[in-house]
C-alpha cells in the first residue's frame, strides 16, 4: 500500500490558484480525472520531488529526495515525511519563493499574451533567468490559456534539454482538457509521437477524461483500448469511468464485463465501479437494478460515498418512491455522511411531492442552519406542499423567508400562487385577496393557477358574485382557461346554493360552452336517457385525460344534489366502460373490497349502490359471500374539503342502514361481515339512491 504523504503550501502569502493543504498518495492511480477538486499534480511532482535520472515510471511508487539548495527548485508543494526529524520550517526555507513568484507571473503573462507562436516566443525569450525542465512544467501547469500553452510547449522543447518530455506533454494536455479543445488534443498527440516521446498512463488518462468531458464516449473508448495497445495499465478509476462510456454507446456487454472484473478482483473493488452501474440503471429507468447494485456493493464491504448516495436518492425520487428516499437518507446520516446541497434538494423535492411534510420541513431548517441557500424552485415546492396539506402558518414563514432574498431571487408568480392557494384551501378569503393584490402590485400577472385557487376559495365561501368577477378578470386579461379551470367551476357549481347556480352555470358557459351546455342538459327534466348518454360521452371524449375523472366526480355530485340519481348512474357506468374509474372491486376468497379512494362523495355513493346490486345478484344465485366485505376510502381529505371521505360516507351509510363500521386498527376502512351484509340487502329492495350529497 502506498504511503500517504502530506503537502504543505510554500507560503501563506502566495495566493496560488487551486493550491492548498491536502493529502494525496504518491502513485499515479491516486489521480482521478473526474475529481473536481484539484490536488497537487503528480506529473509535475515527478520532476519536483525526485532526481530526474532516478524517477520511477508513472505507475510505480516514488520516493522523494531533496537536492542540494544551490539553485532552489520551484515547487507547488513540499512533501514532508512524517517520520523525518527535519522540521517543516527548515525545508520551506529551501524553497525559494521569489523564483516561484517569477514563474507563476510568467504563466500569467503567457495567458494574457496574443495567441500566436511569435508573441509567446518573444515573452519566453525575454526572460533573464535560466528556465529549467522543472520550471517549464510548472509554468504550463499553471496556465489557463490552452492555445498559448501549446506554443509555450513548443518553445520549451526547442530551447531546453528534457529528460522526461512526457511530463511536459501531459501538463499541456491537461491545459487543453480544461478548455475541452478536443481537436488540439489529438493534434498534440500526433506531435508527441512524431517527437519520439513515449506516452504513459497519465497521458491516456488525461485524453480519456477530456473525451468524456467533451461528451464523446466513443472517443473515450477508442483511447481506452489504444491505452492497452501501448502497454499502459489503466487505473481502477479510469476503468470504472469507462463502464458508463461503453454502456452509453450501446456496448452493454463490455460495460458489464468491466463491472464484473472490478467486482471479482479484491484489489479492484472500487466504489466508482458500483456508482457507475447505479447511475447507468437509474438513467435507463431500471430502478430495481440500481437498488440491487447498491445492496450488492454493501454486501461486498464497499462503503458508498456521498456522490453514490446522491445518485441513488435522485433515482428513487424519479421512480416515485419517497419511502426509499427516506430509508436511504436515514442510512446515509447513520453512516456519518454530511449532506451537501444536492442531497438536501433531492430529498426535499421527494418529500414535498409525496407530502412528507414533517421530513421536508426538518430538512428545510437544516439546510438553512447550514447556510445553504434555497432557490426559488425549491421554495415553491415547499409552498405547494404546505398548501396541499393545510400548513398555512408554515407557508407564511417560508414566503416571508423568500421576501428576504436579494432582488431577482425572491418570490415569483408561482410563489404567490402557492401562498394564495394555502389561504384559499383554509378558507381565508381576505388573506387570499390581500396576497393577490400584493402579487399585482409586485408586477406579476395573474396566472390561470392563481385564478383557479381564487375560484375555489370564493366557491367554498358561497360568494358567487366574486366568482363572476374572477371570470371577468380572466376574459379581460385574455388568459386562456384550461380544462382544470373549467373543472374547478364544476366543483364550485356542486357546492353553490340553487338560487346562485344560474350565475355559476353562466360562468361555465362563458369559459367553455361545451361544458356549460351539458350542465344545462343535466338539469333539464325533459332530457331523455339517450340524449344524456350521447352528450355525456361526447363531453368526456373531448376533455384531456387528466381531468376526465374529476369531471365525472363533479358531474355525479351535481346529479345527486339535484336528485338526478338516474343520470348519476349513467355517468358512473359510462366512467366504468371508458376506464375512467377502474379496479373498483376486488373479490377474493376471504374478502370483497370496494375501492372508492379518489372518488368524490357522490361518486363513492354511486359506486356503493352499484356494488350493493352486484352483491345482491350473487345472493340471488345462491352463492356465498366472503366472510368480510370492506370499503376502502383512504385516510386523506380533499385539499379544499373540510371532511375526509370516510367521515362523509359514515354519515350517509347510517342514513341507508348499511351495517358498515370503521375499523379501529385500519385507517380509511369500513368493514362488515357476510351475515350483516346479507341481512341488510335482503331487508331492502333494489332501488335508486335516495339521498343528497
Automatic annotation (TrEMBL):
NCBIfam families, per database record: PPR (TIGR00756)
Ranges of biased composition (kind: Polar residues): 53-64
Domain Smr: 591-681
Keywords: Repeat, Transit peptide
Record-level GO BP terms: positive regulation of translation
GO cellular component: chloroplast stroma
Keyword Transit peptide set for record: yes
Name by which UniProt lists this protein: Smr domain-containing protein
Record GO terms (molecular function): mRNA binding; rRNA primary transcript binding
